[in-house]
Design goal:
Blueprint: E1 8-9, E2 31-33, E3 48-53, H1 67-75, E4 87-93, H2 99-116, E5 119-124, H3 130-139, E6 144-149, H4 168-172, E7 179-187, H5 194-202, E8 206-209, H6 210-215, H7 221-225, E9 229-233, H8 255-267, E10 273-277, H9 288-306, E11 322-327, E12 336-341, E13 347-352, E14 358-363, H10 365-372, H11 378-387
Parallel strand pairs: 2-4, 3-4, 3-5, 5-10, 6-7, 6-9, 7-8, 9-10
Antiparallel strand pairs: 1-4, 11-12, 12-13, 13-14
Helix pairs in contact: 1-9, 2-3, 8-9
Length: 388
């Protein structure tokens, strides 16, 4: 039996000098908090666990190890969430003597949370810990889609030491990997090697430029809905809004846009791990980036406490919750089948493989409209091509 106190240092942050809210209105009232006086030794029926990973080794972003506590200070000044979902803040993962020890500790904790059915919200630290997350999925034999919100595709098209800018190869080409699909949301063309971009496209991965996403933000929601792992690099936000990071860019998402994306992530039915990385308090300006990171997490948590978990019941007949539509498209032998939720107005594609096993792929109302106009939806094509 795992004792979580062996892995975590308890939460310890200074009380703010002032607060706008009255005491019962703070987000801390949504949390069970691992403190020195009230230690959390195990997961009971908590649905989400917050994990700080204060480690910036194997990363040029020195100082990001201070991010978990700096972000917590801002997060704990925000208002409480609706509903009564049980959330536990486990504190900060104990830093191992070597970086591999930190990775091993994170892997152990994630395996435990997967077994308990508890989602993990990881506050980094550096994104160089992401391979430990991938290993936990593989060790648990869980197939996973990975969506990364990042201005850069963290892959170097040559043999190079793995760090926070070069870890994707470890997830993709590891012979034990259980990664099934990768999506990048918000990459900036001029920051990426064209060879790496072409390589990922040939692997049938989805790469969406920041301008594409901005033109229709709602179209990103189905991609989040089918993702078991979602990570957010704060450098995906433009520098004027998030200066506290090692590799900022003058272009990127606006604060309102990144908070909306985080909320979509929180609503995901499939999600098991969400991670926020690369905030550096030493490079911050008047705590602006840490405050934004806290608000990103607040919007994620707001989505989480309001999610409907429809994916677990979508295949059940006669539930009354869903409506099925058959659409005939030229050059396709069988109808394309769409399913719509009467409760959330979300859409799915029903796809049956050669063995007769049905799967449900998230899509949007626009995909249904395109099919009605005799245009094959891109999501349908990509899913079919990945199954071949």
């Amino acid at each position: 039996m795992m004792n979580l106190t062996d892995y975590f240092n308890p939460v310890s942050i200074d009380k703010p000098l002032w607060g706008h809210l009255t005491e019962p209105s703070y987000i801390s009232h949504n949390f069970i908090i691992n403190t020195a006086s009230n230690p959390v030794e195990k997961i009971n029926d908590e649905k989400l666990a917050i994990i700080g990973v204060p480690d910036d080794r194997r990363s040029p972003n020195k100082g990001s190890s201070g991010a978990p506590d700096a972000i917590r200070e801002s997060l704990y000044q925000l208002s409480r969430l609706p509903g009564k979902s049980k959330i536990v803040d486990l504190g900060n993962l104990k830093k191992g003597p070597g970086f591999e020890d930190t990775l091993a500790g994170l892997n152990d904790v994630l395996l435990y949370l997967f077994e308990k059915g508890t989602m993990a919200l990881i506050i980094g630290g550096s994104s160089s810990v992401i391979p430990a997350i991938g290993k936990a999925f593989s060790d648990s034999e869980i197939l996973y889609n990975y969506t990364s919100i990042d201005s850069r595709i963290d892959f170097v098209n040559e043999k190079k030491y793995k760090d926070s800018f070069n870890y994707l190869g470890d997830l993709i080409y590891n012979k034990h990997t259980s990664l099934t699909h990768f999506i990048n949301i918000g990459y900036q063309t001029y920051l990426n090697d064209p060879q790496s971009v072409n390589r990922f496209r040939k692997l049938n991965y989805e790469l969406l430029r920041v301008g594409e996403v901005r033109s229709d933000m709602h179209e990103t929601e189905p991609r989040f809905r089918d993702s078991e792992l979602i990570t957010l690099d704060i450098s995906s936000v433009r520098q004027s809004d998030a200066p506290g990071t090692f590799a900022p860019s003058p272009n990127g998402f606006y604060t309102e846009e990144i908070c909306l994306l985080a909320r979509y992530a929180g609503l995901s039915d499939s999600l098991k791990v969400f991670g926020l990385f690369e905030v550096n308090p030493l490079l911050d300006n008047r705590n602006l980036t840490c405050a934004l990171a806290a608000q990103i997490l607040w919007f994620f948590l707001e989505g989480f406490v309001q999610k409907q978990n429809e994916s677990t019941i979508i295949g059940k007949e006669n539930s009354g919750r869903f409506v099925k539509y058959h659409v005939r498209v030229n050059d396709i032998e069988e109808d394309i089948i769409f399913i719509k939720s009467n409760i959330t107005n979300r859409w799915w594609l029903e796809i049956e493989n050669k063995k007769g096993i049905k799967s449900y792929i998230s899509c949007s109302y626009n995909d249904y409209i395109k099919a009605g106009e005799n245009e094959i939806p891109a999501r349908w094509l990509k899913t079919i091509s990945r199954q071949r």
